[in-house]
Amino acid sequence: MTQMQEPVSTETLFGMGLAIQSVTPFQHVTSYVPDRDVAYQFDPKTTEAILAGFVHNKRVLVQGFHGTGKSTHIEQVAARLNWPLVRINLDGQISRLDFLGRDVITLKDGMQVTELVPGILPWAIEHGVALVFDEYDAGRPEIMFILQRLLENNGKLVLIDQNRILEPHPHFRLFATANTLGLGDTLGLYHETNLLNQGQLDRWNIIVQLNYLELSQELKILQARFPSYQEGNNIELGASMIRYAGLTRTAFMAGDISAVMSPRTVLNWAENIEIFGSLKRGLELSFINRCEDLERSLLHEFYQRCFGEEWN
Question: What residue ranges are annotated as transmembrane (predicted)?
Fold first, then answer.
């Protein structure tokens, strides 16, 4: 039986008062528990929704633009609960066999035998692991229908070829992240997404939208990773870098540029500034070089707005 710690206040774990006032983390940290990021900044509403998924066994779907930290948010809640978690990207390469399992030929006592290797879904269900389906709105139809019954409260997994019905472990949890709300790519930003079955979408108990962090929150992340941004003129420099990232996010949502700066990109920028000793060079290597040539004049204009100097 999995051992649990004594109850801990959520204010102690997450640094904020939440509707769920205390939780009981697992006592032991396994290799499947995500690493804890001590500098992580939690969004209160999203944290409450994800925490409800873990504590009350609710299916939680987190929706938002890419770069908002949807999957990372789930991981960091799990890290503080010592909850084992596995992320799966529902790209076009994930098949039904990957999900449910397949027969493989192995050598046993010098003879070839056929053995069933369980897929990730039966394994997670039986071992009490939280699953996170990234890019949920890009999943293939045959994968989505496998999840239909499992998304119900106390849903079970039926393995037809094995004549088995799997009862979920008490600590099995389901989460998903998506760029859209299941209605397709209405903004023209995510061309690989699909329309989601509304009957299945209705089975998600909690749906929460996560937006980009406030400037002050993102600045705290930058300062925690790079303490030099806590002093003197570097405080304003860090704020200007985040304002620049904010302009790219607004432009991306308007369809003016094809890429967006996430909080992770801002951290890469700060690191490249230290390596190359140049604000502009760090920005080029972290972000501008992955944008289209026609977009660069707009990105240079953003630089002039944020830092008060022309891009030469």
Answer: none
In degrees, rounded to 5, the angle at the alpha carbon of residue 58 between the alpha carbons of residues 137 and 61 is: 20
Phi and psi at 60, nearest 5°, equal -120, 125
> Residue 151 CB: number of other CB atoms within 10 A?
19
Q: List all residues 6 or more positions away from 193 whose beta carbon is below 8 Å from its beta carbon.
A: 135, 137, 138, 178, 179, 180, 184, 185
Phi, psi (rounded to 5 degrees) for 119: -80, 180
Q: What's the burial of 89, exposed, middle or buried (CB within 10 Å: 0-12/13-18/19+)? A: middle
Cβ count within 10 A of residue 312: 5
Measured CA distances, 182 to 35, 188, 295 (Å): 31, 14, 29
- The answer to whether the pTM exceeds 0.70 is yes
Residues 216-248: tens digit of each pLDDT: 989 998 999 999 999 999 999 999 999 999 999
As given in the structure block, the two tokens for residue 89 are: 């990207």
